[in-house]
């Protein structure tokens, strides 16, 4: 064979990474130093940017400004809209421009992002790109942001109709969680966040599922603040939150850069993106994920690996936390099979679909057929119409036979 190279060089390096997620109650109390602290403990100086979600600005804006004023910090503020339709490259550039304007440095003046998953993703991406990557601090203010985005190393924006098509891996050194910040969320946003908690329960935490089953409506009404009258040891809101964060951290840590494309945390996220993007802004992310979780359970039950009784339990629990188990788009086999093809492209030509053997126990499959997907779509139509997903109900003969 003809030799084409005359010399070669290899650069090989490893980069250790650790980042922390801290629960810090009363984050906006000027007595609490955590929000103003630099994540790596060094002394700062220099102006920092605080990016605040628009709704959060309306509710907590004065307290946030008051906090930094009381601590004599030199801050600049930028307000950005939430909602997935605003998760765009334009918003990233907007943040980067402001970082430039105030002279943000490479390390000493990390910006702070206070808001939901959208603001976190936009600021995370801007920080990941600015000077090829600067540290920042994440303060999630939605349930979804606190239990899911809080642990993630990823950020991204929607692009040309695809979810998270552009993005980077750039986790911030510190994420601060204050559960009271989500007490002001609309009920629907709490339900949406619970969609990700139910996913975590289904893939690895049967105890978490039991909690959702037992306390679902209370968790929703109390917005996970544990204000209900119970024994002092019983804190279902806090326990759900801790279990969801711990489960996510455990799963991500072993495969942070996603070199292994078999990820159980993708459960509920295989078919739902196609539905979510088509329905935008009608369906929220966690709402679509909950439907994706039900769809996965339907596929599992129809394969005979999950008991139908468990599927019914899952549907009931999804409903009890204010989520819909199905949607007309989940009854459209064409959309779902397109989503499957897109997933296969994303997973390097493999399906690697996570299915359930039981609540909390998963298996991977690589041989899902288009007929199976169509069959499951038919079951999703039955569920949408309030019928039982059991096969004897669903297997109605077509009228022309
Ligand atoms: N990077 C990741 O790994 C990761 C993980 C999970 C989710 N996400 C992304 O996050 C997005 C969804 O996040 P989200 O559900 O937080 O949506 P969001 O950021 O759009 O927030 C939802 C709504 O709640 C409002 N809001 C935020 N905090 C509030 C508060 N405390 N009180 C009242 N209203 C408040 C916002 O203005 C918005 O209207 C999706 O784009 C998803 O892809 C990313
Ligand atoms: Zn998700």
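Sequence proposed for the structure above (401 residues):
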């Amino acid at each position: 064979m003809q030799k084409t190279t005359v010399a070669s060089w290899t650069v090989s390096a490893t980069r250790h990474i650790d980042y922390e997620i801290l629960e810090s109650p009363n984050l906006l109390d000027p007595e609490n130093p955590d929000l103003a602290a630099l994540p790596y403990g060094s002394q700062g100086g220099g102006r920092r940017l605080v990016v605040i979600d628009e709704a959060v600005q309306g509710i907590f804006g004065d307290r946030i400004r008051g906090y930094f004023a009381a601590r004599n910090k030199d801050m600049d503020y930028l307000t950005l809209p939430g909602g997935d339709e605003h998760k765009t490259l334009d918003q990233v550039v907007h943040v980067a421009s402001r970082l430039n304007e105030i002279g943000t440095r490479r390390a000493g003046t990390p910006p702070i992002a206070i808001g939901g998953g959208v603001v976190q993703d936009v600021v995370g991406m801007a920080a990941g790109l600015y000077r090829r990557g600067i540290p920042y601090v994440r303060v999630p203010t939605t349930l979804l942001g606190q239990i899911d985005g809080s642990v993630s190393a990823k950020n991204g924006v929607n692009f040309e109709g695809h979810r998270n098509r552009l993005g980077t891996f750039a986790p911030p050194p510190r994420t601060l969680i204050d559960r009271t910040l989500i007490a002001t969320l609309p009920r629907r946003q709490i339900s949406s966040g619970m969609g990700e908690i139910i996913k975590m329960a289904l893939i690895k935490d049967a105890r978490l599922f039991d909690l959702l089953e037992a306390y679902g409506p209370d968790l929703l009404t109390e917005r996970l603040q544990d204000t209900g009258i119970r024994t002092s040891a019983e804190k279902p809101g806090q326990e759900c939150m801790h279990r969801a964060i711990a489960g996510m951290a455990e799963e991500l840590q072993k495969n942070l850069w996603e070199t292994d494309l078999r990820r159980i945390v993708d459960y509920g996220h295989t078919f739902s993106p196609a539905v979510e993007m088509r329905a935008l802004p009608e369906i929220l992310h966690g709402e679509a994920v909950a439907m994706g979780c039900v769809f996965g359970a339907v596929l599992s039950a129809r394969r005979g690996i999950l008991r139908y009784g468990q599927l019914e339990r899952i549907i009931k629990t999804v409903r009890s936390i204010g989520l819909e188990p199905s949607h007309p788009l989940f009854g459209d086999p064409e959309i779902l099979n397109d989503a499957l093809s897109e997933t296969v492209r994303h997973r390097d030509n493999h399906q690697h679909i996570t299915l359930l053997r039981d609540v909390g126990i998963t298996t991977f499959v690589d041989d899902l057929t288009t007929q199976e997907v169509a069959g499951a779509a038919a079951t999703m139509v039955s569920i949408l119409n309030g019928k039982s997903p059991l096969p004897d109900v669903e297997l109605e003969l077509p009228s022309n036979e």
